[in-house]
Structure formats: structure tokens, C-alpha cells
Amino acid sequence: MEQSTTQARYVSPETAGSLARQTTLGVLVAVVLALFVRGLALGSGVSLGPTGASSPFAVVPLVMSTMVAGAGAAVAYAVLDRLTARPVRNFLLLGGLVFVGMMLPVVLFAPTLGVTLIGQLVLIVLHAVVAVPLVAFIVGVVGL
Predict the structure, then answer these.
(1) pLDDT > 50? residue 1
(2) Does pLDDT of 54 surpass 80?
(3) What's this model's pTM, rounded to 2 decimal places?
(4) Do residues 141 and 25 touch, judged by C-beta distance below 8 A?
(5) Burial of 66 per CB tally in 10 Å (0-12, 13-18, 19+)
(6) Residues 6 or more apart from 56 whose CB is under 8 A from it?
(7) H-helix segments, the chain
(8) 36: burial class by Cβ within 10 Å (0-12, 13-18, 19+)?
(9) Residues in contact with 112: Cβ distance below 8 Å, sequence separation at least 6, in sequence order
(10) What is the Cα gyration radius of the chain?
């Protein structure tokens, strides 16, 4: 009789240290990707909307919001790991809800700040390039 085994497609963090390490790597990759997308968008010459230090396309807000997102994601995963039997599944569900929820300010609030339609599309892409590496590293789909 053949014995079947199941293998996880990911290596979830088992300690606070491994969660911190995986989150840090996810944040670093997310920052690099976000800055790359920002560079492409600004280099294309299209109008995105407001400029200056408080612009959603400025480097400091982009990097800081990515770091805050990483910290929030790590805390959320830690809570789900402690309180639920299936933290990865629940984290993916929560991440999807947060991602959809974060589209509301992009669509409803960003235009009031002068962000153009192209700028809104760039913000959506920025949200995606931040969310994907964070989730992938935190749940252990990608790891080093």
C-alpha cells in the first residue's frame, strides 16, 4: 500500500525571530519594487497629480507606508497564528480584505487631493507591489 504525504508549499514562521526576518525581507523587496514602479511612473512623463514631500508618490511617504504595512502585517499574522488553527489561510483572507479596503481611499479620497486617473492606477499598482511580497514572505512562500 502506498503511503501518501502532504507537503506544505510554504514554510511558515515558527518563532518571533523568523517572523521578523521574513517580514523584513518582504518589506525590503516591497520597497525596491515600489521605488521601481515610482521611477517608471515618474519617468514616463504623465501627470500623476500632486508633487512635493506630501505627495503619495514621494519617496519618504512611499517607504514609510511600506514599513508600516509590513509591521501591521506581521502583527496580524502573529495574532492569527496564536488565535487560529489555520493562520496562513486566515492571513490570506485578511490580506485580501485589507487590499480591497485600501482601494477605497485610492478611488474616493485621492481625487480630492488632485491625483489624476493615471495616478490612481499607479497607486493601485503600488498597493499590489507592496502587498504581494509582504504576504509571500510572511507566510513563507518565498524565503531565504
Answers:
(1) no
(2) no
(3) 0.86
(4) no
(5) buried
(6) 49, 50, 62, 110, 113, 115, 119, 123
(7) 16-43, 59-83, 87-104, 117-139
(8) exposed
(9) none
(10) 17
Helical pair 87-104 and 59-83, crossing angle rounded to 10 deg: 140
Sign of the torsion formed by the C-alpha atoms of 35, 40, 41 and 44: positive
Average pLDDT rounded to a whole number, residues 73-96: 94
Predicted confidence at residue 39, as pLDDT, reads 94
Q: How far is residue 132's CA from residue 32's CA, in Å, rounded to a whole number?
A: 13
**Encoded amino acid at 117, one letter:** L
C-alpha cell at 70: 509590513
Whether the CB-CB separation of 94 and 77 falls below 8 Å is answered with no
d(CA 43, CA 39): 6
Check residue 144 and give its pLDDT.
62
